[in-house]
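Notes from the 1:1 (GR / supervisor)

We went over the backlog. Supervisor wanted to see one worked example end to end before approving the batch request, so GR pasted a single chain during the call. The sequence is below; no edits were made to it. Supervisor asked that the structure be written out right there so they could see what the output format looks like.
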Amino acid sequence: MTPVTERLRRLAVLLLAVTATGASLAAGEDQEARHWLDRVAYAASRLSYDGTFVYRNGDSIESMRIIHRAGAGGSKARLVSLIGEAREVIRDNERVTCYLPGSSSVRVGKPRPRPADGYNVFKPRGDFSDHYALMLANGERVAGRDTRLVSVAPRDEWRYGYRLFVDEETGFLLKSELVDGHGGVLEQIVFTRLELPDVIPDALLQPGVSGEGFTWSTSGAVPGVSRDSRWTVGWLPAGFSMSDRAADAAGAGRMPVEHLVYTDGLASVSVFIEYLDAQGEHLEGLSRMGAVNAYGTMVAGFQVTAVGEVPGGTVERIGRSVARR
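Structure output shown during the call:
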């Protein structure tokens, strides 16, 4: 794997999958569709569950098991890859730990901050209807459960659309599809099994490997770094604003990678800024990995990469607008 490919892969896996919904309708129906989005947000945070899902991104297909326990003290989750290279991710309120037995390594990072109520980060903003149109319909059966279909269609060319299949009983998101402007499916997540136990035992949330003898590395925000960025993004699609900014450690002797996150409440774009020396191989132009598009360019000796599950033209225009203060 070339350094450029590895850098793109590393940036892409940092993105959170944003699942939401496509077409216009009357105000009353719009409110009903929003109600189903609220149910999705609530269920994702407040339900305890044990399920198996299939994830398809371009030509890549993975099967994974996810175990999530909700509680008054916060949530904890374990994600286990069931095919291909062995991987496990454990997340709680304090850290995200990724176990990679194939390379005998463990990576530890800080989770991105969440709002006080723990779930409204997934809710559409007040100006949501300016940028997306909703439609509600009967959905198909998924994992043996009846669903309602919530569709979200973008009102411009800068974002993708979504189709959500929501469990009628619980509001749990059983299937999601990210779709392009022609209705083609770019990314799909489908649950094949879902259990909703009253209790999730501690043992199910422990990693399958101890990590003993592995190489451990820690990343996260660099202490003492100001929230004020030395960089500015000159153009964003209407409705996008900054949701997070961090300077992540990049390794001994290297400058931290600045990470700026912009979102419209559904779609998100990350801008990574990393100093490269003269010999460093850089990413230039557009690249794509399944549903993820990235645009790289050099600005004053720094690698600037805009990446997100949005059309290629969006990340390119954002990337071209980045400038140093």
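Supervisor's comment: The longest strand covers residues 185-195.
Batch request approved.
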